[in-house]
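#random but structural
TW: two for the price of one
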Amino acid sequence: MFKVALVGTHGINKTTIAYELAGVLKRRGRTVELLTEIARECPLPLNEQGTREAYQWVIARQIQLEIEKSPRAEILVCDRAVLDNFAYFVRRFGKSEAQSAALYTYCSAWMESYDLLVRFPVTRALTSDGFRSTNSDFQRHIDVLCDELFESAYSAQTKPSYVRGALTAAQIADLIVPNLPPA
């Protein structure tokens, strides 16, 4: 099983690309499971007023669903990884306390389960989707935290491999398919 996560702050087209990527891969004869953004299911406050429990719920649920979906297909496409979900926790509660350190260690260990991370930049203004914050300062702060969390730890040579840019679904599929056994 090959696991790819589309990562970065909110409002940067990850969800749209995730759906498109699943379609491209299916048209190339591959079996695909799609894990959409977990935060929308969270019963607790998120965005600028997110609670510790809310962010912990999102991370735990992300892992649970990745475990459930992984055996069902050749490829699991994730709209986010645990580490960009952790960025929201850090923005609200910092990284220095024991709980943050423990959660970071847990998320970092789980990151080894991904094969490819595709980091999307902020390329357009936020639009309201009825859920995510439209505060551009909040979005930029999460983007900076994602830089700190991803850029120092991952590259094209790491496991998971890491690419950054406004890639299309077809370009991402081209990164995935050569790593799979023949269809």
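TW: number two ↓
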Amino acid sequence: MAELPPCPHCNCEYTYEDGPLLVCPECAHEWSAVAVVEEETVIRDSVGNVLQDGDTVTVIKDLKVKGSSTPLKVGTKVKNIRLVDGDHDIDCKIDGFGAMKLKSIFVKKV
């Protein structure tokens, strides 16, 4: 049995097929199964610029780093970022700190 998408209005997971349409039993919303297109997650920086793998960003706020006595300072450039899924959506290497993960809300694209 194929996995059906949840209702776009109420996010109900109990949708069912009725011919060419998908129907939500909770809110009675009907939509076309053909029109369902999965969106790619777009990761944006603190000012709304779209980030991509390989971009260079700068840190916009002093960040405490676990296991280190010195924080990551404002203006630190991070080169060649890699976008990943999860709460911390940037994977990178920073000179003096090594490999770490950052949240996109604390960086700005250069």
